[in-house]
C-alpha cells in the first residue's frame, strides 16, 4: 500500500467513526427526548415544510461534536449550519430526515451524515433509531446495515419493480410529481412514499425497494444514502448521463436503473 492510500484509509476510518458516533447520539436524543406535544418551530419553503425544535437541537448536537473532534472541517447542515473549513473535509448533515413522520409519530425518520473529501463523498451514515438500523458505507469498502453487508436485490423488469419516491413541499412541484406518478404507476409493480429520502436510498441498498427516484432533493437528503446505495451495488444518477443532483435522483441496481431512468426522463420527472 502506498503512503497516500494508507492515509486515505486512515482518514476514511476516522471520519466513519465520528459519523457513527454523531448519528448514534443525535438519533438516540431524537428518539428519547421527543416531547409528547411536539410542535412546529418554523416553516421553510411552504406551510407544510416544517422544522421542529428537535431538528434544530439535533443539528446543534452534531455540529458541536464535529467542532470538538475536527475543528478545521467544513459543515453544511439543513438547519443552517455552514462552516467554510480548510481541511478539505466537508460534513453534509440532515439532522432529522423525515421530519413530518417524526412530527406525527411515524417510525420512518433518520439522521443522515456524510463526509466529503475534496468534493467526493467518502463516508455515509444513516441511522434510523426506530428500525434499530444503522446503514453505513466507506467509498470502495462496501455498505453495511448494522454489521451485515448490504446488497441490492437482483434487478427485476421495470414492470415488476417496487419503486419508492417522494414529493417536495412546493404545491406546483407536488402537482407535477403527482402527474409523473400517475403515468408511472401502471408501468411498475407499485409505488411507495416512505417519507425519508435517506431511508429510501438505504432501502434500495438492502433490497427493500427495487428502485427510488425523487426530484428536488438537497445534498443533505442524498449524500449519505447515495454512497450507501452505490456501495451496495446500486447505480445512482440524475437525468441520463448526468450525476444525481437536486433536479433528479434515481437509484436502482444495474439492469433496472437504465430503463427506470429513461422512463423518468420521458415523463419529465426532472422538471416542474
Ligand atoms: C424530506 C424527506 C422526504 C422527501 C422530501 C425531503 P425532511 O426531508 O426526505 O422523504 O420527499 O423531499 O425534503 O424535510 O424530512 O428533512
Ligand atoms: Ca431531508
Ligand atoms: Ca431534515
Automatic annotation (TrEMBL):
Q: InterPro entries, per this entry?
A: IMPase, Inositol_monoP_metal-BS, Inositol_monophosphatase-like, Inositol_monophosphatase_CS
Superkingdom of source: Bacteria
Q: Which CDD domains match?
A: IMPase
Sites binding Mg(2+) sit at 78, 94, 96-97, 221
Q: What processes does the entry annotate via GO biological process terms? A: inositol metabolic process; phosphatidylinositol phosphate biosynthetic process; signal transduction
The cofactors named for this UniProt entry are: Mg(2+)
Q: Which Gene3D superfamilies match?
A: 3.40.190.80, Fructose-1,6-Bisphosphatase, subunit A, domain 1
- Supply the PROSITE patterns for this chain: IMP_1 (PS00629), IMP_2 (PS00630)
Kindly state which reaction or reactions the protein catalyses. a myo-inositol phosphate + H2O = myo-inositol + phosphate; L-histidinol phosphate + H2O = L-histidinol + phosphate
Q: Pathway listed for it? A: Amino-acid biosynthesis; L-histidine biosynthesis; L-histidine from 5-phospho-alpha-D-ribose 1-diphosphate: step 8/9
Q: Give the UniProt keywords, A-Z.
A: Hydrolase, Magnesium, Metal-binding
Enzyme Commission number: 3.1.3.25
A molecular function annotated in GO for this UniProt entry is: metal ion binding
Which family is it part of?
Belongs to the inositol monophosphatase superfamily.
Q: What does this chain do?
A: Catalyzes the dephosphorylation of histidinol-phosphate to histidinol, the direct precursor of histidine.
Name of the protein described by the UniProt record = Inositol-1-monophosphatase
User: What is the source species?
Assistant: Streptomyces phyllanthi
Q: What is the lineage of its organism?
A: Bacteria, Bacillati, Actinomycetota, Actinomycetes, Kitasatosporales
Amino acid at each position: 500500500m502506498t503512503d497516500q492510500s494508507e492515509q486515505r484509509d486512515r482518514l476514511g476510518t476516522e471520519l466513519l467513526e465520528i459519523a457513527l458516533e454523531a448519528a448514534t447520539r443525535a438519533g438516540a436524543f431524537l428518539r428519547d427526548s421527543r416531547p409528547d406535544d411536539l410542535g412546529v418551530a418554523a416553516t421553510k419553503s411552504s406551510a407544510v415544510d416544517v422544522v421542529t425544535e428537535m431538528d434544530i437541537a439535533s443539528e446543534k448536537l452534531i455540529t458541536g461534536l464535529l467542532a470538538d473532534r475536527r475543528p478545521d472541517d467544513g459543515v453544511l447542515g439543513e438547519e443552517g449550519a455552514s462552516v467554510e473549513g480548510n481541511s478539505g473535509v466537508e460534513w453534509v448533515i440532515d439532522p432529522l430526515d423525515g421530519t413530518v413522520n417524526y412530527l406525527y409519530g411515524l417510525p420512518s425518520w433518520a439522521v443522515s451524515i456524510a463526509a466529503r473529501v475534496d468534493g467526493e463523498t467518502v463516508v455515509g451514515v444513516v441511522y434510523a433509531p426506530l428500525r434499530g438500523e444503522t446503514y453505513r458505507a466507506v467509498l470502495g469498502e462496501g455498505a453495511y446495515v448494522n454489521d451485515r453487508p448490504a446488497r441490492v436485490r437482483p434487478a427485476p423488469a421495470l414492470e415488476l419493480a417496487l419503486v419508492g419516491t417522494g414529493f417536495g413541499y412546493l404545491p406546483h412541484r407536488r402537482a407535477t410529481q403527482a402527474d409523473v406518478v400517475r403515468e408511472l404507476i401502471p408501468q411498475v409493480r407499485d409505488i411507495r412514499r416512505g417519507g425519508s429520502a435517506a431511508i429510501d436510498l438505504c432501502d434500495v441498498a438492502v433490497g427493500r425497494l427495487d428502485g427510488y427516484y425523487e426530484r428536488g432533493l438537497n445534498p443533505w437528503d442524498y449524500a449519505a444514502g447515495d454512497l450507501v446505495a452505490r456501495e451496495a451495488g446500486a447505480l445512482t444518477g440524475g437525468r441520463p448521463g448526468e450525476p444525481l443532483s437536486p433536479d433528479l435522483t434515481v437509484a436502482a441496481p444495474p439492469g433496472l436503473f437504465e430503463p427506470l431512468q429513461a422512463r423518468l426522463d420521458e415523463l419529465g420527472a426532472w422538471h416542474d
